Amino acid sequence: xxxxxxxxxxxxxxxxxxxxxxxxxxxxxxxxxxxxxxxxxxxxxxxxxxxxxxxxxxxxxxxxxxxxxxxxxxxxxxxxxxxxxxxxxxxxxxxxxxxxxxxxxxxxxxxxxxxxxxxxxxxxxxxxxxxxxxxxxxxxxxxxxxxxxxxxxxxxxxxxxxxxxx
Length: 166
Prior knowledge:
By secondary structure, this protein is α+β, with helices and mostly antiparallel strands. The protein has two domains: 27 residues; 123 residues, 2-Layer Sandwich (TATA-Binding Protein). Helices cover 30% and strands 25% of the residues. Strands 1, 2, 3, 4, 5, 6 and 7 form a seven-stranded antiparallel β-sheet that branches. The two termini are 39 Å apart. The N terminus is likely disordered.
């Protein structure tokens, strides 16, 4: 092997090592995350936080239960075999004629606790979606045609066990 071939081989080897060192562990979505159980606990924390802004009469009623769904369309460009964790609940015990005031209480809570508003369809439709600036969990508020409030929260894409699949 002459010097030119040796230099070419060394350059190619260095390029391959560089490419390998920025492999799976560095790609978006391939990093460790919280587990699905930790995500479920954080979903509940986000819901409990906003519930603390409402009158004491407000109570949560299970609507769907905790949901673990495939992250089929990840917005972070990462792999699809992660999951999202979410829950949607009814807020009971509050008069429907006080919905606007209670929605404003929740909006104020989010504004003062590190959430950014992604969508606020008021006054046309009483629906708000926010995202926590700290952990990218989303929380949404909706009102049914009958005037019932519902609250939901969802995690970003996470690995079920916290680490990428092999």
